[in-house]
Amino acid sequence: MKIGVLTGGGDCPGLNAVIRALTRSAIAIHGAEVVGFYDAWDGVMDDRAIPLTIDAVRGTLPRGGTILGTRRGGPYDQPDGVRRVKETMRVRGLDALVVIGGNGSLTVASRLHSEEGLPVIGIPKTIDNDVVGTDVCFGFTTAVQIATDAIDRLHSTAESHDRVVVIEVMGRDAGWIALQSGIAGGATVILVPERPFDIDVVADLVRRRHARGRQASLVVVAEGATPANGDFPLPEYGTDHIGRPKLGGISVAVAHEIERLTGFDTRVVQIGLVQRGGTPCAFDRVLCTRLGLEAVNAIVEQDFGTMLAVRAENIERVPLSHVQGKTRTIDVSLYQQVADVFFG
Ligand code: F6P
Question: Which domain holds residue 121?
Answer without folding.
Answer: 2-139+280-322
